Amino acid sequence: MKYQLAAIALYATVGSAFAQAQVPMSAFGLEIGKPIDLPACEYVGSTKSVVMLQQKTCFEPASPVSQNRDKVHFGMKEVPSIVSGFSMIVKIVDGNLEALYFNTPGIEAKDRILSALTEKYGVPTKLTKENLQNSYGAQYESFNATWDTPTLYVEYSPTSSGSLKAGFASVETQRTHKLRVDALKELAKQKRAL
User: Fold this and answer.
1) Nearest in space to 164 (alpha carbons), one of 120, 194, 131
2) Is the Cβ–Cβ distance between 160 and 166 less than 8 Å?
3) Rounded distance, CA 161 to CA 85, Å?
């Protein structure tokens, strides 16, 4: 019996590690780590504004119009259910899609979005609960979920900047996540030096 329990524990550990290694390298049909495979967004008018009510999902490269950020704009009928709005910021490195940053519906959708991300990326490696309070004194329970896999770093928070009506999520390669964290540390270090 003792050996059977040890074998089960070993199998569960190996199975969990194998599942983590098999995390899909995709989000919303886009292959992470590969060139983005979307048509260029079409523009209207002399101001080159993006057609926000487009029929098909498209890619808008960084420009002054896009606030110097690469973006994906979803077609009217193609907006994923866990995304709030019609677009998301993406990070392209050496021609490959390395990260996606997007708003999510607020706290009322937290269970649905957590379930969708768990189905896609497995059980979160870290789930930190938070107790929040709005300006009227009402209490809310929220969380921050993280999937720290060998290939991807995924984060989700049902609240963003203190708002209960909007959340935020990101899907990054481990390389891009490390670069972002290092840049934030350097920025904090420079602020302390002032």
Assistant:
1) 131
2) yes
3) 17
Cα–Cα distance list, 38 to 24, 49, 53, 93 (Å): 19, 18, 16, 16
Q: Which of 174, 108, 122, 114 is nearest to 145 (CA)?
A: 114
CA distance 167 to 104: 5
Q: What is the pLDDT of residues 9-56, one digit of tens each?
A: 333 333 444 444 577 899 999 999 999 999 988 776 555 555 555 678
Q: Which 8-state DSSP code applies to residue 47?
A: T
Instruction: Report the alpha-carbon distance of residue 12 to residue 82 in Å, rounded.
Output: 30
135: tokens are 């300006």
166-185, pLDDT tens digit by residue? 999 999 999 999 999 999 99
CB contact at 8 A, 31 and 65: no
How many whole angstroms separate alpha carbon 92 and alpha carbon 56? 20
How many Å from the N-terminal Cα to the C-terminal Cα in the chain?
63
**Strand runs (DSSP E) across 74-193, as ranges?**
87-93, 96-105, 126-133, 139-148, 152-157, 166-173
